Amino acid sequence: MTMPSFLLAAEHTSLAAAMRGELGWEWLFPIVETLHVISLAMVFGSIVMVDLRLVGAASRNSAVSRLSGEVLPYTWSAFICAAITGTLLFVSKAHVYFYNLQFQLKFLCMFLAGVNMAVFHFGAYRHVLDWDERHPPPRAARLAGALSIALWIGVIFFGRWIGFTT
Amino acid sequence: MRVTHHWADWIASTALSGWLQNEAWVVPTSQSIHIVSVSVVFCCAVMISLRLLRVSASGRSVSQLVDTLVPWMYRALAALLLTGLVQIVAEPVRQFVAPVFWWKMLMIIGVLALTVCFARAVRRNAARWDTAARPARAKWFALISLGLWVGIIFCGRFIGYTWELYL
Fold first, then answer.
1. Which residue of chain B has the CA closest to A69?
2. Which residues of A touch B161 (CB under 8 A)?
3. Mean pLDDT value across residues A111-134
4. Structural domain span for residue B24
5. For chain B, how many structural domains are there in total?
């Protein structure tokens, strides 16, 4: 199936019709969007907690591995909620979002944030016990933390801009 | 509601508001910073509340969480206040005619008072809050503040969807 026909098929599902308010629930879209905001708030807030620790700006009295272990379960559960609510928002007007520049930039930022996380996880983090409580943290960790903060702020900015450009 | 309409019209007529209205990037940028900031506050509030409700049993103690997270909540709240003011001055009518805006303001006052009292109580007697026998009101603080924050985010997002109904 080609991309345009896939997008149209997604828009023609009854789920997408419900999200557009065509089945009578006109408040469904704003409610799902608010749940998306609540989920992304947990994703961003929890990621930034770990990132600020990696940069060396906060939670200096917690070891990096301990803080990640405590916070990342929040991140992943919230990410699943954000992905589900995000998919619901997307199918309502799939082709509009897919070809929207801000939407594309948002996903580029998320992809780069994922790459950054993978590089860090399979790089500096493998030896985390060597620098768990060191101040300042090693350069690779500080770089990963700073990049992550910048990219996730990008995700939020472009995400908010989608609403002004579609 | 009439009085608040007058306030809105007066704010909209100021030079500052006129300038903000003419710069198309101001409101989206301010809203984005607002979302970044509310994420920090909300995430901190959820972590403290779930710790108090014992949903998350591991990790730092209640007093450690309060010492680390509450200062970040206050910083983010300052950014929320600033960007919120920008949005009010740039689009006063949109905010003041929407009942959800006033509900949001009420809930903010409530959750602020609650959080300040809670943080002070924990700082006064940290040991008491870190044991399993912490005050029973801890559970109520957690539930009420979670409810208020979720309500605040709902009302905030619904200003944009409802204000035109009240023109």
1. B59
2. 27, 30
3. 94
4. 2-166
5. 1
